[in-house]
Amino acid sequence: MKSGFWNARLLLQGTGALGLAALLLGFPARGQTREPLEGSPQYSCFEATRAGGGAVSETLAAQLCQGARSDAPAQCFRRVQAGGFLSDPQALQLCQYAMPSDDPASCFLKARTSSFLDESQLVQLCRPPIAEMLKMCPYGP
C-alpha cells in the first residue's frame, strides 16, 4: 500500500491537477497516452468506416465497430450506403456485428430486388445472428 501511495505522489509531482484527475478516473496521465494497438479489429473497422467516404460521423463509426472482429461491418455499411437505400440508423442496425462469413449487405441487396418486403423487414431478415441474440440481453451489448 505504501508503494502505491508513493507512486501516486511521484505522478502528481510531475503532472499536477491533471495527473490527479487522470489517476482518479483511471486514465493515463498526460504524456502517457497509449495508441490503439495495430491490428485491433475494432480500430481498423473504425478507420475503414471513416476512410470510406461520405459524411460518416465518428460517433456512428464507433457504434458500428463496437465489438467488431474485422472490418466487415465497415465494408457492409459502405456497400448498403452506396446504393442510398438505407438511412444511417438502418445501415447501422444491418451491419453492426457483421462477420466476413455472414454477408448482410449481399443478403439485403439480393432480397431487395427479389421481394416486396420493406427496408425495415429486410434489415431484420439479413442482420447478423449475434444482433438478435444481443436483443435478449437485459443490459444491452
Automatic annotation (TrEMBL):
<protein>
    <recommendedName>
        <fullName>Secreted protein</fullName>
    </recommendedName>
</protein>
